[in-house]
Amino acid sequence: MNSLPRRSSRRRLAHRAGFTLIELLVVIAMIAVLAALLLPALAQAKRKAATAGCVANLRQLGLALQIYLSDEHVFPLATSANGLGRWQRALRPVSTGATLYCPQKAEPSEEFLQIFSSSPAQITPHYGYNFVGSLRTSRSPRNPGLGGDLVSDEAGDHYVPAPENHVRVPCRMIALGDSPAFIRPLGGTSPTLTPADLLYIAFPFIFPAWGKYGVGLTHNGGANMLFCDGHIQFAKQAVWLANTADSKRLWNNDNQP
Q1: Is there a contact between 116 and 198 (Cβ–Cβ < 8 Å)?
Q2: Angle at CA 181, nearest 5°, toward 177 and 184?
């Protein structure tokens, strides 16, 4: 006689063990709310990690630059006048090829894909060298940047490196940093080039040939810049590109605007 109530009790427990449709919808809604709250925080953490990775790369490049200066007493040439980057090849033996790329992903540019048709779906933005300082259109007697002076002699037109002592205030002159602007290689250039061979340059204005800014906005609208003394500084793109004397001084080896 006692078995009937026990069977009835088990049926009630079995019935209560499942979720109703309303309970499932409530759980799904709560998960959606939590995801909406967490995703922005995770995205921000990812951006901060990429910025930290960029700073680490620039720190390594700064160390490589200091070692190069101690050995050569001149700054690396920006290019050998062939439209390719020479400064990257000068610093690569001391650092690594990976340090030439910012960890923050970016879509490949149309110009880049025309040169490297076999590029992957995404590339990383490159670091640009302070080639010509704040010089824009006309050449001065001496290049205010770090890329070297263009001279003409019996060997033809070629660049000579900028001596280390040309930089008056190393802690107030940009050496290199985030930049999306590059110079297209000359025709007939070897097809075995990698993105690290392109001449990326940084400067405080729009690159006239391609309409690109000489300073990136990779990191939340800003860019990391390595100075000649080895320290790294972050600022918004508008700060690096400000049309002010103080901003232009940061690009010129004589510390003049």
Answers
A1: no
A2: 130
Instruction: State which amino acid sits at residue 173.
Output: M
The pLDDT tens digits for 27-63 are: 787 887 777 766 665 566 666 667 788 999 999 999 9
| DSSP calls for 8-46 | HHHHHHHHHHSPPHHHHHHHHHHHHHHHHHHHHHHHHHH
Joined tokens for residue 93: 């033996």
- DSSP notation for 69-109: HHHHSBPPPSB-SSSBBSHHHHHTTTS-GGGGB-SS-BPPP
Q: Are 250 and 215 in contact (CB under 8 A)?
A: no
Boundaries of every domain in the chain: 3-249
| Total residue count of the chain as it appears in this document | 257
Strands (E), 170-220: 174-178, 182-183, 199-200, 206-207, 212-213
Query: Model pTM?
Result: 0.78
Distance between CA atoms of 103 and 82, rounded to whole angstroms?
Answer: 28
What number is the average pLDDT over the span 125-147?
A: 82
Q: State both tokens at 57.
A: 């790369």
Number of helices (H), then strands (E), in the chain: 6, 10
CB neighbour burial string for 85-98, b if at least 16 within 10 angstroms, e if fewer: bbbbebbbebbeee
